[in-house]
Amino acid sequence: MPELELLRPDHAPALLAFERENRAYFAASIPDRGDDYFHRFDERHRALLAEQEAGLCYFHLLVGTEGEVLGRVNLVDVADGCAELGYRIAERAAGQGLATGAVRTMCDLAADRYGLTVLRAETTLDNAASRTVLARTGFTVVGETELDGRPGLSYRREIARP
């Protein structure tokens, strides 16, 4: 069963492989990271770890039994008990309920480990899979937005702290 793991330095090779293998798949529904992301991956990875260490963001990987990255689930812009949720699942793992399970787990972690009370998320209108995951995990639509020039929706979920 895949597990959510907090991003570590040794995740870099598997994470880069995940991003490369799924680049075209992701670009069909979310903005592409661009070539610079891949050319400067090691530098970016170190910067993410520094942001995480400072408590500004929490980056998690959904890791399979062979150590392969099957997805990412991140909490960014952490402040005042709130954070923005973002996630992406590998094409080969899509449609198996992994995103729904990982987002549910992240909601629990956000409350229990990170002390958060509200999560926000956004997705484009044409990303039906992401809209379904957010609905299944208790997020509600709170408004309209635009993402990279595409119409989208903003979501919010209150999360309970223990």
Description:
This protein is of the alpha+beta class and 162 residues long. The protein has one domain (3-158): 3-Layer(aba) Sandwich (Aminopeptidase). It contains six helices and seven strands; from the N terminus they run βααααβββαβαββ. Strand 3 and strand 4 (82-89) form a beta hairpin. It is globular. The mean pLDDT is 94.
Question: What's a concise summary of this model?
Answer:
With 162 residues, the chain is α+β, with helices and mostly antiparallel strands. It is built from 6 helices and 7 strands; from the N terminus they run E-H-H-H-H-E-E-E-H-E-H-E-E.
* Strand count: 7
Shape: globular
CATH superfamily: Gcn5-related N-acetyltransferase (GNAT)
Question: Number of helical segments?
Answer: 6
Low-confidence stretches: none
Task: Summarize the amount of helix as a percent range.
Answer: 25-40%
Major sheet strand order? 1-2-3-4-5-7-6
> How many domains make up the coordinates?
1
Distance between the termini: 26 Å
- Here the CATH topology equals Aminopeptidase
Multimeric status of the protein = single chain
Q: Profile the largest sheet.
A: 7 strands, mixed
The assigned structural class equals: alpha+beta
Level-2 CATH architecture: 3-Layer(aba) Sandwich
Output mean pLDDT: 94
What Rg do the Cα atoms give? 15 Å
H/E element sequence: EHHHHEEEHEHEE
CATH class: Alpha Beta
Strand content: 25-35%
GO molecular function: acyltransferase activity, transferring groups other than amino-acyl groups
Domain N-acetyltransferase: 2-160
InterPro entries: Acyl_CoA_acyltransferase, GNAT_dom, N-acetyltransferase
Keywords: Transferase
